[in-house]
Specification:
Elements: E1 6-9, E2 16-17, E3 35-41, E4 43-44, E5 48-49, E6 53-60, E7 69-73, E8 75-80, E9 83-89, E10 102-109, E11 115-117, E12 133-136, E13 139-142, E14 152-155, E15 174-177, H1 179-182, E16 195-196, E17 199-200, E18 215-220, E19 235-246, E20 253-262, E21 264-267, E22 276-278, E23 282-284, E24 287-289, E25 297-304
Parallel strand pairs: 1-3, 14-15
Antiparallel strand pairs: 1-2, 3-9, 4-5, 6-7, 6-10, 8-9, 10-11, 12-13, 16-17, 18-25, 19-20, 19-25, 20-21, 21-22, 23-24
Length: 306
């Protein structure tokens, strides 16, 4: 048995969508030689249940005359989930004239006067998928809407965007960040406390190559306050300081300059070249220790670990 192709009823716009190849109802004067299969939501309109209704196919044959109108009850109504299927057997009057036959579905609720109909001319060709046809008040409409099916697209760059193509989509397509880029968005790659696309970072910079702490303070030698985060690594001082002394004879003042160069310093001299004096700097109670005593002023760059 050939595959059944259903004529689909859209309960929202009430159009009848005819699959490719199903728009031929027969040839002139056929009688009960063709059967058409329909699928429709079980509930239509204001909660009208097709399984509790009389369903008909209203027909206007190709003659265009009032005498060419008729109504045919559907057969084999079957409910399946949210849908129902039913069949229409075409009788001779339907195909008594060559040309386009217009038909619609009529639902009459049993025990009430409520009716629900499919309507014509509620769609234009671009609203119908390519390869499908429908019938409106002006006859057959051939679809031209592009059927995109499921469109999948990945994005790899921050500034990249995706333009959704015009046409029909079946709802299962998706646009997502590419897998290679997703693999990079992990906590260990993101700075601690920063959130990117729902991932909160855990990365914290740590020292490398030994005690390369890279901390530095500008300190006043008269109050050399420091607060290193690590207790390891060599402390070094760079810059200039001075010591002012007053002579016991005549009250004259002498200023001695100290040039600090990491782990030593040079002291200005009256005669000859200054000699380097090694120092070992430390921290006690938040204060820098190991500087020469008696310094009167000056600012030093104090670093640890470099």
């Amino acid at each position: 048995m050939a595959e059944i192709k259903y004529l689909e009823i859209n309960a929202d716009d009430r159009s009848i969508i005819i699959p490719e190849g199903e728009n031929l109802l027969g040839v002139e004067n056929d009688n009960k030689g063709v059967r058409k299969y329909f699928i429709c939501p079980k509930i239509v309109g204001d909660n009208i249940d097709l399984t509790k209704s009389d369903v008909y196919i209203n027909v206007q044959n190709a003659s265009g005359e009032k005498s060419g109108k008729d109504r045919y009850p559907v057969q084999n109504m079957t409910a399946s989930g949210d849908n129902v299927t039913f069949e229409w057997v075409l009788e001779r009057k339907v195909t008594s004239h060559k040309g386009s036959v217009r038909f619609a579905v009529c639902v009459r609720e049993k025990g009430s006067e409520r009716e629900w109909h499919t309507t014509f001319a509620t769609a234009t060709a671009p609203d119908i998928l390519t390869g499908k046809t429908a019938y409106g008040k002006d006859g057959k409409l051939t679809g031209s809407m592009l059927n995109n099916g499921a469109v999948d697209k990945s994005i790899s760059n921050k500034s990249e965007s995706y333009t959704i193509p015009q046409g029909y989509h079946n709802g299962s397509g998706k646009v997502a960040i590419s897998e290679s880029e997703q693999a990079k968005i992990i906590a260990s790659n993101i700075k601690k406390g920063v959130s990117i696309l729902g991932v909160t970072g855990s990365y914290e910079a740590t020292a490398s190559g030994g005690n390369n702490n890279c901390e530095a303070y500008l300190v006043d030698v008269t109050n050399p306050t420091v607060s290193f985060k690590t207790a390891s690594g060599t402390i070094k001082a760079y810059g200039y300081a001075y010591e002012t002394t007053k002579s016991q004879w005549g009250g004259s003042t002498t200023t001695t300059v100290y040039a600090f160069n990491g782990t030593n310093y040079y002291k200005s001299a009256f005669y000859g070249s200054p000699a380097a004096t090694n120092i070992t700097l430390g921290v006690s109670g938040g204060k820098l220790t190991g500087l020469p005593t008696g310094l009167s002023g000056g600012t030093l760059l104090v670093v640890r670990g470099i």
